[in-house]
# Entry
Amino acid sequence: MCIHWPHGAAQVTGAGAPTTAYGHVCLAFHDPAALDARAVRFLAAGLAAGERVGLIAAGGRDELARRLAGLPGLDDALRRGAVQLMSVQDRYRSDAIIDPEAQVRAYAAATDEALAAGHTGLRVVADATSLVRTAAQRAAFARYEHLIDRFMRHRPMSAICAYDRRVLGEAAIEELACLHPEGNTEVLFRLYALAGTEPVALHGELDPSNHEQFAAALDRANPRPVDGRLLVDATGLRFVDHRSLLHLRDHARRHGATAVLRTSRAGTARLVELLELAEVTVEVAR
Amino acid sequence: MRTGAAAGHVGYFHEAVLYDSDEHLLAVVVPFLLGGVAAGEPAIVGFGERNAELVRRALPAGAEVTFLPGGEVYARPTSAIRSYRKLLAGYVAQGVGQIRIVGELPPIVFGATWDWWARYESAINHAYDDFPLWSMCAYDTRRTPPPVLSDVARTHPRVARPDGSHPPSPTYTPPESYLTEPRPMVVDPVQRTAPLVELTDPSPARARAAVQAADRGHLRPEVVEDLMVAVSEMVTNALRHGTAPVRLRLWSARDRIVVTVHDRGEGPKDPYAGLLPAGDGSAGGLGLWISHQACDHVSLHREADGFTVRLTAGNPHVPV
# Structure
């Protein structure tokens, strides 16, 4: 399954993560109208590709429908079930801490239903702002963001996760944005799922300014080793310092595993050797 | 059990050999090595090619003396400390009572990069004090500049003489004092030109980008990559532990890139900063130590207006 995404990718910037075949985009917004315009383009492309599409946000059904008014054939698509609308407050209390696994199961079921109903996949725009206001909410939601990222790598689902800058601070948005392979925020690093044998990829730069954020992201994503090896594709990582290597070592150690960092930078191998990190090995791929 | 002049001494017994002829050098070094061999102690020579050959010829055939491959170990002081500490720990694990080493620095380090080797000579009084080590550092007084000899006298507690005596060095200064003294900066000539880049309070990422932009392909890629690591660390230290404003200046010369990072603070409190890893690594303190191994020269300067660290990638041996 390969979702082509002619409208989205070009407008997305960030740490320069490669445009993915699947789509899991973080969109931080100031202007709700701009979000709606983007949602309409994104969902219209989904409809054109035969997908079931949905908008999940605060507000009643009528309001959500109004926001998608620009979607061609909206009324018909709503009747056919090709467009679904879901009000966040119908499902969650305002201070709810989501259950990451249950949330992914729900999307897995929704993806299966969409396929069973003859659609080619599921595509959603979700404004989750009200679910990430507190640190505890964000911790759970960040975990979910990585789990759904992994799910979308393997199943025909794609999403825009929208976060309201008028409500959330920059740091809060970065905590979530760094767990998306792409987005419109200038995050220095990204951690995301891969489809192949490497469970995760790192992209961008890991340095003194974001190592704590990296430690938190690693802890929340919690990538698991396979046969004692935790493969990390770091070929997109332009810089990594000793602090983040130590976090990676600690993570591997907690799992009784060795982190295998695939990188194109020999400097990383020199640093690992200098620090004598027994639980980290570096494979330099030129 | 320790033997020879260091018998009864605990920890590191550090001496200078200030020789003015081959005969003088051999009269000190040969008995030193053979005394070690006789006592069953590891006896090690870390000399350059010429003097290694001189000693090899003077030793009786089959004497169990180890010659370290010259050169590499004295590329960077912090790396030298790392590799010597490993070597010493290996011997101690075998249960030896004492290790004897005679070494010499390549004369090229008596120029623009002497300051970090002077710090090395001082710091090892502490860094090797965990080991039953008796070592002699040989300096040829005919070729060593007087200011270097003055630092040698201040960093070696004793002098080994050809008459078998081991008098204390009258100007010896313990490392905690020596290493915290203000040290005038030996200016790299390129610093007298306008810097290519000047940044105030840059983020580490901005500072790294400046290094990358200065790369004209005149240095090997790994040299530039390692400089980026060091610059990132030094800017971080200045921003976190120094006093604003933090000023980065960068110069690019034919065979090197020079970067200074200045702040208005007092610099690291730890006298061994850069030469030994500080702390357990997780709480910070590794940045300067890593930088000392990532650059071809690191110079530290405390002045009235603050603290400056200068990093050189490429050829640091410029005429000064």
About this structure: The mean pLDDT of chain B is 94. Chain B touches chain A at residues 203-205, 208, 222, 225-226, 228-229, 232-233, 236, 240, 281-282, 284, 286-287, 290, 293 (CB under 8 Å).
